[in-house]
Amino acid sequence: MSSQPQPQPDPMTPPIVDPVDQPYIGPIKLVVDLTNNVDRIVTVHEEIPVAPEGKAGAKEMVLLYPQWIPGYHSPTGPISKLGGIVTTVDARRVQWVRDRANVYAFHIPLTPGAKTVSVDFQYLSPIKRTEGRIEISDKIADLAWYEVLMYPAGYFSRDIPFDTTIKLPNGWKYATALETATDAVEIVTFKTTTLDTLVDSPVYAGSNYKRVDLSPTPTDTVHLNLFADSPQDLEIKPEQLVWHKRLTAEADKLYGSHHYDHYDFLLTLSDKLGVSLEHHQSSENGHPANYFTDWAAGVGGVDLLGHEYAHSWNGKFRRPADLWTANFNVPMRDDLLWVYEGLTRKRPEFPSFLVALQSRTSPHGAHRGVE
């Protein structure tokens, strides 16, 4: 046996501070610029107030980029898509340092009495599917907030307030479950909300847009927000609208109540991009461009809208305990994923809506639907 010295591990760096349930000094100001939809580069600016402990002499602020993303149930935060990170403290540039053990954590040195940390960076949205989900084209953008922000470590995400603004390309419209504060042409500011709600409320935007009312009752407000590659793809016929209204009517009958203030289906009709993901008061959905214009031929994934809508109850309003986390960098435990996804799949997802779509080319496709 060799008597030569053997390698020994270096001591690990101190862990990132655990989150605690206390209000952050906030709000954090976040500005997201979507106007460069040619290069698909999103420009981000954040202004983060320094908490009292920082002003009292803390040597650094630790910022986290979201890692564990709700709905994906795994550490899929696209850290590799960040570029050009620049940090300043009270307008004076300082050099951030990546944590040696946690690549999603950034250490920002503070000066005595520091008031504000500013962060600028670019999010490099994929241009081909092998790089990740396609989110931006020359006609449509799907903005997922978790991709374009950092937040201070040590706090529950529900305790961190955000003031957010987006800049849109000329002539574009938008839809989201967020509440709008001001809308000045292509610059939109949303009302202050928590980081939890922000990450759970994506924005769809585009040059070809139509909004359709699917509200099953006067007190259950639901809209279908359509964004298309071409204006003609937005044309929805009365008989097509009937089937989509049955979806929300059957949900109202099935669940007997709703927990959201309003619900927004966000739906792309595109051959260039599209994603599906559930949220509390909205959902991201993608169908081919011919979803309405070639209705008789049918399209795959006809259960998409019903599935993501059902998740608003099962998975969002009620979530398995080990899938809930204090912030977006605490690991999820998927022991009860079978409840989150399995129950949603096993539950009949509004039968008459699905039968209608799956059999719309069949003479036997009629279904009684909701009484």
3D structure, described in words:
The chain is an alpha+beta fold and 371 residues long. It folds into two domains: 28-206, Immunoglobulin-like, CATH 2.60.40.3650; 209-358, Neutral Protease, domain 2 (Orthogonal Bundle). Helix content is 15%, strand content 29%. The protein has six helices and 21 strands. It has helices spanning 52-55, 195-199, 238-255, 304-313, 337-346, 351-358; strands spanning 28-33, 41-49, 60-64, 82-89, 92-94, 97-98, 105-109, 116-124, 140-143, 151-152, 161-167, 173-176, 180-184, 187-190, 193-194, 203-206, 209-213, 222-228, 263-269, 277-278, 282-287. The strands form four sheets. Strands 1, 2, 4, 5, 8, 11, 13, 14 and 15 form a nine-stranded mixed beta sheet that branches. Strands 17-18-19-21-20 form a five-stranded mixed beta sheet. A hairpin with a 2-residue loop joins β4 (82-89) and β5 (92-94). α3 packs antiparallel against α6. It is globular, with a radius of gyration of 23 Å. Residues 361-371 have low confidence and may be disordered.
How would the blueprint of this fold be written?
Blueprint: E1 28-33, E2 41-49, H1 52-55, E3 60-64, E4 82-89, E5 92-94, E6 97-98, E7 105-109, E8 116-124, E9 140-143, E10 151-152, E11 161-167, E12 173-176, E13 180-184, E14 187-190, E15 193-194, H2 195-199, E16 203-206, E17 209-213, E18 222-228, H3 238-255, E19 263-269, E20 277-278, E21 282-287, H4 304-313, H5 337-346, H6 351-358
Parallel strand pairs: 1-11, 18-19, 19-21
Antiparallel strand pairs: 1-2, 2-8, 3-7, 3-10, 4-5, 4-8, 6-7, 9-16, 11-14, 11-15, 12-16, 13-14, 17-18, 20-21
